[in-house]
Amino acid sequence: MQEPGAVVQFHFFGEKEDSHQAKSIMEEALKSRSIGKYTVDRNYISFEWEPALSIQSIDASEKMPVVEDSELSLACITQGSSAMQVRWFKDGAAINVQTSYRSMWTTLVPKNSKDQYTAILGFEKAHVLDSGKPI
């Protein structure tokens, strides 16, 4: 068998009940062995469903108002593609924990049994400058 000259990946994101539409489009491509001018090889097709991106909740480890100098973590619970990324913003500007002048960190908790990911932004000591405008 000849190796493909190029491999193209299609990612379909949506509700699970809509996945049959994307699957039927790919099955038609397999029958005709093409998508437009491109050849489709059954040996290089796989179909996996992942939910559309949605934010389930955003939670704080402390009740508001947060006491200055206390440890604080914010958790963003999401559902969606394993390839998604969560970026944290404050007042419209991206937060870069690597260039922060004090101890901040981020982590992504692996998917749980509900297909949810948890992205966490942590502060070793909360400061008044961490407050922001609600969105």
Automatic annotation (TrEMBL):
Q: Which Gene3D superfamilies match?
A: Immunoglobulins
Show where the Ig-like domain sits.
Answer: 51-92
- InterPro entries given for it? Ig-like_dom, Ig-like_dom_sf, Ig-like_fold, Ig_I-set
Q: Which UniProt keywords apply?
A: Receptor
Q: What SUPFAM superfamilies does its record include?
A: Immunoglobulin
* Xref: PROSITE patterns: IG_LIKE
Q: Does the keyword DNA damage apply?
A: no
Kindly provide the name given to this protein in its UniProt entry. Answer: Putative g protein-coupled receptor
